[in-house]
Design brief:
Number of strands: 11
Oligomer: single chain
Shape: globular
Structural class: alpha/beta
Number of helices: 12
Strand content: 5-15%
Helix content: 25-40%
Radius of gyration: 19 Å
């Protein structure tokens, strides 16, 4: 089995980017500008928000999700074939009509035209069912990133939030091989430890953990242990730190320093070229918290029913109750520039900030997609 190791040095690929904050008419990437890449975002209602956020590229989950309740009343999130076959067509059509973003098929597409290079992702493999031919179908439509599972076990892999964890299934192993053949970036976010480790070691391309956090800081199965961070990094992959604050810190009041601590830990374990930035909220921020002026004490209430349901199932990591949802300063459309400034203030050198804010994702997307 071929194994991909680190093949790129942070440098040529990370030097360069479009000046942030230019909506829809940004110049091509040049060596004197920093690029901003968000490794888990969503298409906003107003696509001009992408330019306001200063993004040069993003991985966009375009899944159509149905919330259902199981026999115990626990909410589950399903992504069926018909709904998502239509969802990818809708996303492509929207992007083709927009001056603010475009469908990107290769990492080398970043900066080749005005607007934000948008890599389409499904945040689960449920729509594949047991028909691996659908991976090629979606690839032909523009899919470039595919996540194995979302929290729970499915036909491909074991999820992170299960009473008993499992890894890749035989179908998942075959599906990974098909992703490798097609040059789709495998994403292990929301997977169990075994799923993440098996995918990292079996894949013939580097992989992504597009959005997550560090278990050494918050002990929760949704957060990655050092063994996973190291396995992804050693094979040239990247982990994105997301904005959901109750998985970033157990402190009562979350701050940007808690986000920086997450980044610093991944750098210590995996190296400077192993970490990037993810959102996992709407482009402008978590909307209910924005309405509440980022009052975490009130805003966290919407998560507690689900949290208690996970606790009732005996799932590890839910034996405490979160007190916050967002880092107020980062729950904002200008989070990328604010975070870049915070990293610089925390002592990261310019080249390191370049790598974290977008260079590492650009390198990975180019390594895997071309």
């Amino acid at each position: 089995m071929a194994v991909i190791t680190r093949r790129s040095v942070v440098g040529g690929l990370v030097a360069g980017g479009i000046a942030p904050g230019v909506a829809g008419a940004a110049p091509r990437i040049g060596r004197s500008h920093r690029i901003f890449i968000d490794s888990l975002s969503f298409l906003p209602k107003d696509l001009a928000d992408i330019g306001r956020a200063g993004l040069n590229a993003m991985i966009a989950d375009i899944s159509e999700v149905e919330e259902v309740r199981d026999a115990a009343g626990i909410p589950r999130y399903l992504r069926g074939f018909r709904a998502n076959d239509a969802a990818i067509d809708k996303a492509v059509a929207r992007l083709r009509q927009s001056p603010h973003a475009y469908v990107a098929l290769k990492g080398s597409d970043i900066g080749t035209r005005p607007g934000c290079a948008t890599f389409l992702q499904f945040q689960s493999t449920e729509m594949i069912e047991d028909d691996l031919g659908r991976i090629a179908r979606f690839h032909a439509k523009g899919l470039r990133v595919l996540q194995f599972t979302h929290h729970n076990d499915n036909r491909f892999a074991g999820g992170a939030l299960q009473p008993k964890q499992s890894g890749l299934t035989p179908l998942g192993i075959a599906g990974l091989a098909e992703m490798n053949r097609l040059r789709i970036l495998p994403d292990v976010s929301h997977g169990s430890d075994a799923t993440m480790l098996e995918a990292a070691t079996r894949s013939t391309t580097p992989i992504a953990l597009s959005h997550g956090a560090v278990r050494a800081i918050v002990d929760h199965p949704r957060c990655a242990p050092d063994t996973v961070i190291r396995a992804i990094a050693e094979r040239g992959g990247v982990m994105g730190i997301f904005m959901m604050s109750f998985w970033l810190t157990r402190r009562k009041v979350p701050t940007v320093a808690d986000y920086v601590a997450q980044v610093r830990h991944v750098v210590r374990i995996g190296g400077i070229d192993a970490v990037g930035v993810a959102n996992d909220f709407p482009m402008g921020g978590q909307e209910n918290l924005l309405k509440l002026n980022n009052d975490n004490a009130r805003g966290v209430a919407e998560y507690l029913e689900w949290w208690r349901a996970m606790r009732s199932q005996g799932i590890a990591g839910f034996d405490w109750t979160p007190e916050h949802v967002v880092i107020p300063a980062l729950n904002h459309i200008h989070r990328m520039q604010r975070l870049a400034d915070a990293l610089s203030a925390a002592g990261f050198r310019g080249r390191e900030v370049d790598a974290i804010m977008g260079g590492n994702w650009r390198r990975l997307l180019t390594d895997v997609l071309g």
